Amino acid sequence: MEAQDASYPSLKGRPVFITGGASGIGESIVEHFAAQDARVTFLDLQRDRGEAVADRIAARGLPRPLFIPCDLKDLDALKAAVALSAATQGAPLALINNAGNDDRHKVEDVTPDYWQNRMETNLRHQFFAAQAVRPAMKTAGGGSIICFSSISWFAGEANYIAYVTAKAAISGMTKGLARELGPERIRVNAVVPGWVMTQRQIDLWLDADGERQIKERQCLPDKLMPADLARMVLWLAAEDSRMCTAQHFVVDAGWI
């Protein structure tokens, strides 16, 4: 049974800011917001892929998203991207902190520099993006910040301790921000994906053992796809979820 996308009138014309939008889950999120006629800005390191995504969406007759090449470890570049987005698309009223990297590593191989790099790649930019969009959301009377955590820390997964640590911290950060920004009607929630079948995941890890794990650990038999996460994000960005904040929305087909 193929899922059908809902229509969210409150997203039409809404400025939306998405990190890591050139591939995988982020690419699907960009496409889904564009299909809602939102005013989308997305960031990514992959310049060619980002431009291709924007071109493909515009070719479908949808509003062309603004793509800004950006290394999110560079906080000045992130702040400048938020400012450019506000000047051209309108101040973001929804922030989707999607970007991250789950490269595998052993405990014994982690150096202080690598640890710092993983925190900058997976955690730090989520907070500073939220900090950057907050003033305009407050002025507008509210907004939605959607952070991306992971079932990796819920499940206690091995072989990427820095990533697992960062994703656990995101869950705590979500709770704290929701409490602090709530009086401004800024909602802060975390989406918690399971094993999503992006091309990267398929290429690197979907072997016979991976297929076995899906059958054994998911409650549902179908593979989890990027669009399944994008649909949850749409709902959290729309006014339909106006009284939902400080929550974790797990989309994992029942893995945990």
From TrEMBL:
Name of one Pfam family that matches: adh_short_C2
Example of a GO MF term: oxidoreductase activity
Domain of life the protein comes from: Bacteria
InterPro entries, per the entry: NAD(P)-bd_dom_sf, Sc_DH/Rdtase_CS, SDR_fam
SUPFAM superfamilies in the record: NAD(P)-binding Rossmann-fold domains
Alphabetical keyword list: Oxidoreductase
Listed PROSITE patterns: ADH_SHORT
Similarity section: Belongs to the short-chain dehydrogenases/reductases (SDR) family.
Name by which UniProt lists this protein: SDR family oxidoreductase
Species whose genome carries this gene: Acidisoma silvae
Lineage: Bacteria, Pseudomonadati, Pseudomonadota, Alphaproteobacteria, Acetobacterales
